[in-house]
Amino acid sequence: MTPAPGPALEARGLGKRFGGVVAVDGASLSVGRGEILGLIGPNGAGKSTLFDLLSGVQRADRGQVLLFGEDVTALPAHARARRGLTRTFQLARELDRLTVIENLVLAAPDQPGEALWRALVRPAAVARAERAAIARAGELLETVGLADKRHEPARALSGGQKKLLELARCLITGAPLILLDEVGAGVAPALLDHLTDTIARIRREHDRTLMVIEHNMGLIGRLCDRVVVMAGGKPIADGDFDAVCADPRVVESYLGLAA
Amino acid sequence: MTAYLVAILTSVGFYVVLALALNLQWGLTGMLNFGLAGFYALGAYASAITTELGGMPFLAGFAMAIVVGTLAGLAVAGLSARLVGDFLAIATLGFAEIVRFLALNEDWLTRGPRGFPIETRPIPEGLSREASAWAYLGLVALLVVVAFVIVERIRTAPMGRVLRAIREDELVPAALGKDVFRFKLKAFALGAALAAAAGSLYAHWVQNISPDHFTTALAIGVWMSLIVGGTGNNRGVLVGATLVMVILEGSRFLTGVVPGLDAERLSALRIALIGVLIIVTVRFRPEGLLPEPRIRLETPAKGA
Ligand SMILES: Nc1ncnc2c1ncn2[C@@H]1O[C@H](COP(=O)(O)OP(=O)(O)OP(=O)(O)O)[C@@H](O)[C@H]1O
Ligand SMILES: [Mg+2]
To answer: Does domain A9-94+175-254 have CATH number 3.40.50.620?
Structure first.
């Protein structure tokens, strides 16, 4: 299968303000198909807000979002998800009182049993799709190393495990484009390498496009084909990891602080 | 004595259906509804108007109650669900007040505060008093079973999983491609329809309805059924509704037994009793007598 040409995701002049705070200030960028793009920058740079605008969780004040070439600016989050864009959140949003595996099975796309009449009548297709989704979810739990937590309520997970759960939840949707907001935050150092490998393998084996916000430069350096640096609500540098790290503006606005 | 028991069981039945409706809306989906009594009243009046003023049979009134209840549910949830969560609570309260206001003031349609006499009954003419009471209990029990099966099937289906996800954090199902608004509409409208159906059966049972029958106190009783029995657990809700109803009704026997207990003090005592029950539950068993059951999803064995 040859992918259609053109970027997976494109932002054109996106802007968002909260009262007096300009969170995103005319941000433009594009993500190529199959690419892993890192998004870095100081606290408050507008990275998470940009994710919100791209995924439709918040409405942009101005600008456009193009998803696989289609203008989705006016579409709500669920419609963008159905067109192939899903995401995780900076503060893990696990569904507390659902079990770990329910969190995953929920995300399986096109479940016939979600329709009211099929929920009541239960044609055979409902059970069939449910079995397939449960089997797939079981495999993904193995992938992210949460198999032994299967029937735990999700609130019982540690912060890092919640991040892994969110990642697996994105995978089961089958969405070709995944936005990860600080996947590494709270993940135990010993697990971090495993997480990095898992993400790299997902891209290779499942042909996904990823956009990754991270403060952990090790993870960004190992994972990303390209890095965009944001500060003050817009991208200030764009290039491969080494080039971006050497950029004086980046050193001044971000890396200088970290060092 | 048997007659009294049959009557109590019948009223427990209405309560259980209301509690199941609320469990669908709040227990599973997390949608606040403080106006449950309004949907109950709407069903009662819609049914009574259809049969008494429209001269139609009971089934037409029952169907009308369900249609009107569904539409009202869609309207209330549709107008408020896109706004922030708490707005629904206010909208439902407002809705119940509007229904009450109409019932009180539109005499030509509802007979106002004097009460609306209802002749039409869903059971055959010519039965003895006792037999017809039993037959009516059977009908109400049928509605309870139907409501229970509907809400329980939804709970255990993929649809119920989406509703529970919405309850936990609606941003997540939205980011995963679920149309949260539509799911909320469906859950709320179906709950409203169940409450209205109960209202219809209630109207033709008491045979005289007035706005006093559909007070906020009733809605509070239903809420308590959920809290005590176990929010999110349909069996728990069954137990909770029965318990609350037994306390409300059973305390009636205390007049005459306890000296100095007149009707006014009794109603205060009832509220106090329910209050104690709530406090004890919240303190010692915050998830209710029967907590929400955990669903175990097992991978089927290969070849199964
Ligand atoms: N809902 C909101 N209401 C008001 N202000 C907000 C809101 N969300 C974000 N902001 C503000 O917008 C700016 C950008 O925030 P954002 O969370 O996008 O930054 P970030 O780059 O993700 O930072 P971090 O690295 O700390 O996560 C900040 O000044 C923040 O305080
Ligand atoms: Mg952030």
So the answer is: no
pLDDT digits (tens, 9 = 90+) for B200-225: 999 999 999 999 899 888 888 899 99
Average pLDDT, chain A: 92
B278: confidence class by pLDDT, cuts 50, 70, 90: confident
Q: Do B176 and A115 touch (CB under 8 A)?
A: no
Suggest the residue from A102, A104, A134 to mutate for an interface test with chain B (most B CBs closer than 10 A).
A102
pLDDT digits (tens, 9 = 90+) for B135-145: 999 999 999 99
For residue B264, pLDDT beyond 90: no
Has residue A1 got a pLDDT over 50? no
B232 within 8 A of B286, measured Cβ to Cβ: no
> C-alpha distances in angstroms, B138 versus A165, B43, B160, B178, B246?
48, 20, 29, 40, 19
Q: Is B175 on the interface with A (CB under 8 A)?
A: yes
For the Cβ of A257 lying below 6 angstroms from any atom of ligand 1, the answer is: no
State in Å: Cα B243 to ligand 2 middle: 49
CB contact under 8 A, A135 and B153: no
Prediction ipTM score? 0.92
What does residue A231 show for φ and ψ, rounded to 5 degrees?
-155, 140
CATH 3.40.50.300 in chain A, residue ranges: 9-94+175-254
Q: What are the tokens at B219?
A: 């809605």
Contacts of B213 (CB under 8 A, 6+ apart): B41, B44, B202, B206
For the CA of A44, the nearest ligand: 1
**Which tokens belong to A196?**
């990095």
